[in-house]
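Narrative of activities, Objective 1.

The group set out to show that a structural description can be obtained from nothing but a protein's sequence at a throughput compatible with the screening campaign. Below is one input-output pair from the validation batch, recorded exactly as produced.
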Amino acid sequence: MSLKIVLLGYMGSGKSTVGELLSSQISFSFFDLDHEIEQLEKKSVTKIFDENGVIYFRKIENKVLDKIINSENDLVLSLGGGTPCYYDTMNYLNSKENIKTIYLDVPIPVLVQRLFAERSTRPLIEKIDTQEELTEFIGKHLFERREFYRQAKMIISVADQSPTEIAARIETLLFQ
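Output recorded for this entry:
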């Protein structure tokens, strides 16, 4: 049975960066769910949101997730920040023995620091003008999403470790 390592967490938590490093370390394929959606739709996530709306995006996201999860390959998958909150995704993922869900838990101040400079590339926060507004937005959003994130089989606090250290830690927790 193939092993699926699924990284989840808020935008800016390092899911894609850590996922790529981890997949390289353990010789698994790596998939970034947002990237796979962009490939399928031939447009950016931002453009999909703008042109088709959030409901359309979530339907496509769920279909692509299902396809990846049901492949025969060992893989590391980074989810979009909202993916765990829709379509009973966490129950679905956690019901499968071969799937290890891992929540990368990052403190709000660290998320604000990471996301403020790149907010123009993030549809949910592109119109936020100050760090104070971003802090408030992330706080409210995390309040809503944490109940889903905390359903992960493993929760890793990643406040001050480098992506390399986090990937090594996950490898150790899973394989030793």
